[in-house]
Amino acid sequence: MTNAHPPVLGGPCPYLSVSNAAKAAEFYVKALGAKEVMRMPPDDKGRYMHIHLVINGGSLMLADVFPEHGHPLEKPAGFTLHLAVDDVDAAFNHAVKAGGEVVLPVQDMFWGDRYGQFRDPFGVLWSMGAPIKKA
Fold it and tell me: What's the CA gap between 61 and 39, in Å, rounded?
């Protein structure tokens, strides 16, 4: 980790406000193989305004909620963060063992992927997919 500002990787970069950004970062490192590339110092209440992770080649930003500045905790809704992975079964099982809650078990889908969804301990819905391997 460094105080330098690493470049944002990938296309649109999700910026999540969660109930505990430090714990969320730890979960994403453990469950998804994230690499933490930057973290600003916490405020006097131990809250983080900015943590930058790289997951699967793309950036993900995290912050604690700051209700006194117009950023209250809200239940995540209306989006899913998707990861294209090589081995969806292994990656999905790893994320669930780390604390993810299965929403849709991994299965072969009509569009040609093995695909599944889980919700992380911070309420964020994730999906994983990989092309079905031909036998």
Answer: 10
